[in-house]
Amino acid sequence: MVKKLFDYRQLGFKAGLEIHQELNLNNKLFCKCPNILQRGEPDFIIKRFFRPVMGEMGEFDKAMLTEYEKNKTVVYEGFYQSTCTYELDETPPTQINEEAVETGLTLTLLLKGTPVDELHVCRKNYLDGSVTCGFQRTVIIGLNGAVPIENKIVPITSISIEEDAARKISEENGVIRYRLDRLGIPLIELVTAPVLEHPEEIYEAAYRIGLLLRATGKAKRGIGTIRQDINLSIEGGARVELKGVQKLEWINRLVEAEIQRQLSLIDIKNTLLERKGSPETLVFNPVNLSKIFEKTKCKLVSNSLKQGKQVLGIRLPYFKGLLGRKIQLEKSFGFEIADKVNAITGLKGIIHSDEQLSKYGFEEHEIGEVKLTLGLNSEDAFALVIGELEKANKAVKIIVERCRLAYTGVPLETRRVLEDGSSRFEREIHGGARLYPDTDTPPLKISVDQINSIQRSLPPYPWETEKIYSEKYSLPIKVVRELILEDKIDLFIEIVDRLSIDPVLVSKTLIETMKALQRENPKFKEISDDKIFEIFKTLKTGRIAKEAVEDVMRILGSDENITLDVALEKLGLREITVEELDEIIRVCVEDNLKLIKEKRERAFTPLMGEVMKKVRGRIDGRIVSEHLKRELNRIGGE
Question: Domain of 504?
Fold first, then answer.
């Protein structure tokens, strides 16, 4: 069990999941382009700019406006093999991929949901550039499903089929590069109700849903093919979407870090109210402070001023001591504000009064003059922004708006997760005005016969299969689960069933040994299933001993082009013949006749150790044992 740092029930914690799984089908969702990712240089590039559009209700989506403020240029990289005029938004979509529809219906029935009787494609607005037309086509295929976890049934509110977005290649100097090969790849989107009450439940729900997706037989494997988003909140906080959870083992620390962030933001809100502050005290009135720093020793500022940039300052009433307060891991509230400034404007950061300003090279008289010019009171803070005037003004506006939001506690945000457990601002949470019907695709009827046909061929529930594997191979369910999570269960079964090798040895090798080698060498490359099978096949024939398996894997993981024979040669594990073994044993026995005479049958263990020093990894220990016993019997019989 994962150790709880919080009393989640007392906090009023609740969470829901959004899971996106790419499907391994031949074609994309709305065109006939192949479902593949490309390598190498693109065949062509296209540059575009985006602007927000009103939704059907005559409103702009707030998140779209935030993206528009970033003023990014988008460059698309295309390939003739996997990109057509549909991905370029030059032609309308073709009919929806029927195999994707069948997969969506299969998942709906596995979740005991209700399939819709007619599919209606909708458009979901995006303005981050990842979709060329500015919207993603999505279609709800099932409603009101459920997945059982321990002591709870988790409702599934919707199951949808949609097209994946283009994949981001880089972002630099206001230019985002996307590759169009992923755009349009079919994926399943699944949304749970917000009924999950602690990280273990989130983990279990995500794991079981992942199993069901794999049970369809159409789920892609590998990093990036499944993406989990966690929507969570606590009492007094707000809904925050943690986006891009790649691994289930991240869930616990991500949730804990976000709860700590929300608690800290609530505490900041309460402090502001205790100081009798209000959002109205925060006014957008940036002051140009460049003259104060004309002779500054701060290199950051002096170099920027030489480049024609400006230093703008803003008074933040009642915020003294709050900008430096740690809110998530070691990251401060000031850091969070600077992160939002960076995400929208591209400016690298801000300088604020809660920092140790001497580290920048500022002198006391400069800071004193800043405070005097801005008119700071005893409970006030200030922030400085350095940049071109237009960007600097936009940055100050963001600072003021974010500080106003501090009076509400936790703002509604989508945050990109990081491996250390923290998260960073990505965008405002999208509103409902972004979804509207697609006029390019006709409705598609789902027949009762189609539903009945899929119902008859549903696979068994994976968690029941877990128990079967656990009993069959005498392994704890925890080990079986880890094999499944690491995508090694099929390889495990093949090795154990075909080669009759100890399941414990195989599972430890595939999980523990592999992880140990990856920790030992961050550049350790994934060893193909075929090579791992060959290692165990070589072990089965007696050519190597089990003690040599880790060393062989270490070499194979150093270079994906190395063959098993080359690895064995590098280790000096040339296979020895039975005749060579017998000669080694004979010499060892002759050298230890006195020991044999003194200890008799007890001499076997030390002699076995001596022989194994010379042959370990080159022949199976069982064969060595048999031949040594035979030689000792012969000596004893003479």
Answer: 462-570
